[in-house]
TrEMBL record:
UniProt GO BP: proteolysis
Domain (Peptidase S9A N-terminal) ranges: 13-418
Segments forming domain Peptidase S9 prolyl oligopeptidase catalytic: 479-692
Protein name: Oligopeptidase B
Family: Belongs to the peptidase S9A family.
Pfam families noted in UniProt: Peptidase_S9 (PF00326), Peptidase_S9_N (PF02897)
Gene Ontology MF: a single term: serine-type endopeptidase activity
Keywords: Hydrolase, Protease, Serine protease
Region of interest (Disordered), ranges: 1-21
């Protein structure tokens, strides 16, 4: 019985064959025409999209809406219950900085954040920036960053009006409650104020949408007068800039997929040439923290899972590095916060996070303990270097997020916020487990599981299996209110922590990139089959979901094992991998050759990528229902990737389906930015999953 029995006839994209060749191999691309020749212009002006491409995307949207029309009442029910789990006036716990404590909040019914502060000594809240008012009736608006000046007189803020991640930075006079005349365009989200509060550093993007230099903007001047502080001319490297907690320096982070380097800017004299700490070299990653009298550096030099070293402030070169926290294989150091008296480390072992606190003077160290078999843990904002402690957020897949202030000396843990679920939530009704799925090459893949306590592992339950597995990015096993809508309807929810992430350390990442990228895909299938063997579900009852690079994962596994899956949700999927990695004009292609391989110059990389690229490996076989999602102004995974994939699937498959394509014509990589608008997208995906498993 098909999940969508009355699906209408789908749109058929024209075949306009283009012959391509490389490394002695020739092939035909029938749908290359969907890549707009003026794609850079479309990122800045979506109305510039060619009429024939727009017509097809709109026809695809109408078709997807038509097929999903029977689920519309369910979508509305799901969105309503997801919204009922959100605290409409949610707010962050304020964090002190000098005479003020800063925080963000929402108003009831509001879609966007409000940036606020209150006097540290007590008093009325002040709304510094109203995201709802700024959004107005715009089709897209996302407040990406807000940074207050050291003298607390101004707020620099960055927003995206198109979804293309080309931000505009403005500056608000907090006494007047109005923006100054300053306007910085084509910027990234990084903003670091100078010590005199008279200007700020930011990252400028070039015409190919690549971050290529750090600029200094002085208040009251035109952007054309901004000073170049650092420039990176090699498109294979990304750059960012972040301020030190003590306010003395900014760190320019130059990073790629095979190394990094840091340049230190003196925020009291920002036009002085930045100081290079250690020049980049293949395989060496490091980042620098300003510890006041010395620098602390997280590095993988002779330490695969990273260690902490220190260096004199006036001589931070590698020759002067001295170990502070030794390397231990399998204990991956993810992040660090340095305070005047303590160092806090976030680490991970076998997919479980750890929090380690070290006294900087004595070297004494201790772990902060947590319950649950699998959980998410991360640092939260601290503004003051002299703070007695850190702030962290913890949650599990069953327990809502809790935010704590932790005194590093007394070890007192103070709860400052517990996530409220207004419609009610009983963590005791759910079970979380951490499984390990064996692979053919002798590895074990961590799998985090959430389900209702009454679910019986007899193979009858439907299961949603999520995966990503790229760039060293770990999928955290944290709390999600929207996820409960599936779990409360009998689904098991699972995360496959496949190679390509760092859930089992840096080795786990290295074994899921370049020539070893296929490990990511086989790991996901091993996790799915282990869940079947353990009775959590059965073959044909699994809905797989992944986005971006996780969408590539979806495309590969559905090509390789379509019978395992009841459905596929591929969100902004990187499915035209070969063509994208051969197109040097695209924003992310040159930087990502060290992640995926360079198929233009390297025949072996060409063969590897061509061997798994989902678009290039669509087969004459039956496919399960597929929901592919794109964004017209997405600068990371272009809209044409899911569009080409959907067209080729329909032209090639021998049965099954349907294949649905929905392109958000007013958004980019992250979809709709408003918190309630976003829930409508999540509800649509959940309704699709339920329909695939005949759970309407």
């Amino acid at each position: 019985m098909t999940a969508f029995p009355d699906a209408p006839e789908p749109p058929r994209a024209d075949r306009r064959p283009v012959q391509r060749s490389a490394h002695g191999v020739a092939w035909t691309d029938d749908y290359l025409w969907l890549r707009a020749e003026n794609w850079e212009e479309v990122l800045r002006d979506p109305a510039a999209l060619a009429p024939d491409i727009r017509a097809l995307l709109e026809a695809e949207n109408a078709y997807a809406d038509g097929v999903l029309a029977p689920t519309k009442p369910l979508q509305e029910t799901l969105a309503a219950e997801m919204r009922a789990r959100l605290q409409e006036d949610d707010s962050e716990p304020p964090q002190a900085d000098g005479p003020w404590a800063y925080f963000t909040r929402y108003r009831p019914g509001g879609q966007h954040r409000l940036v606020c502060r209150r006097p540290r000594a007590g008093g009325d809240d002040q709304t510094l920036l109203d995201g709802d008012a700024l959004a107005g009736d715009k089709a897209f608006f996302s407040l990406e960053a807000a940074a207050h000046s050291p003298d607390h007189a101004r707020l620099a803020w960055a927003a995206d009006d198109l979804g293309s991640e080309l931000l505009t930075i403005r500056v608000r006079d907090l006494a007047a409650g109005a923006d100054l005349g300053d306007r910085v365009v084509n910027a990234g989200e990084d903003i670091v104020w100078t010590r005199d509060s008279a200007g700020f550093l930011y990252v400028e993007l070039d015409e190919q949408h690549r971050p290529f230099r750090v600029m200094l903007h002085r208040l009251g001047t035109d952007q054309s007068e901004d000073a170049e502080i650092f420039a990176e001319r090699d498109p294979a490297w990304f750059i960012g800039v972040g301020g030190a907690l003590n306010g003395l320096t900014a760190m320019i982070d130059v990073h790629g997929h095979d190394g990094s380097e840091t340049h230190v800017v003196d925020l009291a004299d920002p036009t002085r040439p930045p100081r290079l700490v250690a020049p980049r070299r293949p395989g060496h990653f490091y980042d620098v923290l300003d510890g006041g009298d010395r620098f602390l550096i997280r590095t993988n030099r002779q330490a695969r899972d990273f260690k902490i070293v220190e260096a004199p402030r006036d001589a931070p070169e590698e020759a002067n590095w001295r170990d502070v926290v030794a390397h231990r294989d399998g204990c991956y150091l993810i992040d660090a916060v340095v305070l005047a008296r303590h160092l806090a480390l976030l680490a991970r072992e076998d997919s479980r996070p750890r929090l380690i606190v070290i006294d900087r003077e004595t070297g004494d160290r201790h772990d902060v303990a947590f319950d649950e078999a699998t959980y998410a843990l991360g640092f939260d904002t601290v503004y003051e270097f002299d703070s007695p402690g850190i702030r962290f957020a913890w949650s599990s897949m069953a327990r809502p997020e809790e935010v704590y202030d932790y005194d590093c000396a007394t070890r007192a843990r103070t709860l400052v916020k517990r996530q409220v679920v207004p419609s009610g939530h009983d963590s005791g009704r759910y079970v979380t487990r951490l499984l390990f799925a064996p692979t053919a090459d002798g590895e074990t893949v961590p799998v985090s599981v959430l389900m209702r306590r009454e679910v019986v592992c007899d193979g009858s339950a439907p299961l949603l299996l999520y995966g990503y597995g790229s760039y060293g990015w770990s999928v955290e096993a944290g709390f999600s209110t929207s996820r409960l809508s599936l779990v409360d309807r009998g689904f098991v929810f699972a995360i496959a922590h496949v190679r390509g992430g760092t859930e089992k350390g840096w080795r786990w990442y290295e074994e899921g990139k370049l020539a070893r990228k296929p490990n990511t895909f086989s790991d996901f299938l091993a996790a799915a089959r282990h869940l079947v063997a353990a009775g959590y579900t059965s073959a044909g009852r699994i809905v797989a979901q992944g986005g971006s690079a996780g969408g590539l994962l979806m495309g590969v596994v559905v090509n390789d094992a379509p019978d395992l899956f009841a459905g596929i949700v591929a969100d902004v999927p990187f499915v035209d991998a070969l063509a994208t990695m051969m197109d040097e004009t695209l924003p992310l292609t040159p930087p990502e050759w060290l992640e995926w391989g360079d198929p233009v110059r390297d025949p072996a990389a060409f063969t590897t990528i061509r061997g798994y690229s989902p678009y290039d490996n669509v087969r004459a076989q039956a496919y399960p229902p597929i929901l592919a999602l794109g964004g017209l102004t997405d600068p990371r995974v272009a809209y044409w990737e899911p569009a080409k994939w959907a067209a080729k699937l329909r032209a090639t498959m021998t049965g099954g389906g349907p294949v649905l394509l929905h392109t958000d014509m007013d958004a980019g990589h992250g979809g709709k930015p408003g918190r309630f608008d976003h829930l409508t997208e999540v509800a649509r995906n959940a309704a699709f999953a339920l329909a695939c498993c005949h759970r309407l």
